[in-house]
Amino acid sequence: MPSSQTAKAYTNIGTGEAHSYPEFTLGDAPVRKGYAFSGWREGSISGDSHEAGEKLTVEADTTFYADWNDNIQPDFGRVTYNDGYVSFLNWIIRKSNLIVTVPVTEEGSGINTISYVLTPAGGSGAVQRGTLDIRNASDDTVSDGPVSVAIESGKAEITLTLDSDFKGTVSLSCEDVAGNTATKTIGGSGGGVIVEDNAPDIAFSAGSGSSLTDENEDKADVLVHVADNENEKVSGGIKEVTYTVTNDSQVIASETVTNPDFSADLVPECGFTVRLNVAGENILRVTATDNAGNTSTRQQEIRVKKQTSATGTVEKDTYQGANSPVTNLLTGLEDLPGIVLSAADMELVNKGLDIKILLSVEDATGSVNTELRRVVENSLGNYLLGQYLDISLFKIFGVDSRNKVNTTGRPLRIQITIPDSLKNTDGTKQRTYAIMRVHDDEAVFLPDLDNQEDTITIDTDLFSPYVIVYRDTENPEKPTVTEEPGTTERPGVTEAPNGTEQPAVTEQPAVTEEPDETDEPDETDEPDSTEKSGGTKKTGSGNSGGNPGPETGDRAPLAAYGTLAAVAAILFLFLNYRRKREQ
Description:
The protein is mainly beta. 8% of the residues lie in helices and 44% in strands.
């Protein structure tokens, strides 16, 4: 909307009627960047003031002017820092030469001055302050102490350069020509800026009954003190402290100090004790890093005398990560040292070092890379993918010095419990499991060495990614077999040459007289004379003595019928028995 508007007056001239004046409505508030609208001025900028939308009656052509007021303060933009800084607990920390850049915009009356205040933390040191006159500046850049300001078209860019050994807060303020002021504090509540390039100091001292220079009897306690504020130096706080202990070039201990918690506060110093109980020359090496990135390292040699009672121990343990199956290391502790530990490791045990052999199993589903996935999927065959596992083996020296073991001299036996999520719930299916091991991009199936449905037991000497795989097959129906008396031991059964039990064949009596054709029974009354039992062909009928029996019409001799009936019964029992065995 324009910043002025004109109201026109109309009169009924020459009609002899009274003058009439039209009603006029003032427009809505216009917008001007950097200013606030304060009303319409009638006739001139100093005329009567009217509100936007107000209704007036004009008696003559009148121009109304927008009245502007600069009551909007300058606007500080986002603060940026040069590379290498750390933001920690509202503190901005850097080794040296922190450069802070802050843009400021004033589109109203213009920037008048920019001021700065550097206040050291804890009241140590003098406050440094200054003011830059921007309104009357003759150059495009104005400087004062650590602050310089580049000016261009109502905008300014403040650059603040802080050198080492400053710790405190930085406050900036900008005032415009109309008197509006904006402020900006760097570092936030409870923080500020730390610029320091001094590394932490590390000091060693002997505990009670111990010595740093003489040979200790069976152990030595070393007190370690780390300070990032020695000689009243500015401290960015300790970020991390680690130490290692080496004996005969073998790292026997490696630990990160966790007390105090360096992530919870600005910790300027800390102390801890390291106990050395392995015989020989021990080298304690401590490394400390502060939040500014300064690092220092110091080491101390400590000798411990060998004692016969100083022999260490070997233990075994397993670690089960989240969502990983229950896994057991079945290889006994009596065999583990000879499989996993080297001769140098055993020498350290003899000197008093405790070693733990740890089998670690973790769910690797979320960390599978593309290449491993490709190898597995190309090797599945008729198996389905179950779960990716990372099965690792570690030697842990002392407190927590982990040494990963990629291969062992002989296989270890490991038992993996099938996760509930992979168990079969379909009664029509039969599920079998296997373990796929992927080592050097080569996939190998490891057989299941136990007969348990809920576990897989494997032997392996390589430790890398593993995969539980499975396949389902149709579960065949098993017919119900009713056991009959005498099935375990049947009389009259002899072993056939091919190993199949067959009923013994009773020798048939000699037949000396063939009956007439008219005496043959109907085919429906007697089995076919060609039917065999035990490989013996049945050849006719007769009594035991070969004498013909009494005849009644067309009936065959009774003795022949009895013999045939006995053979048929034996044959029936044999066939029924054989069918049951085949089932």
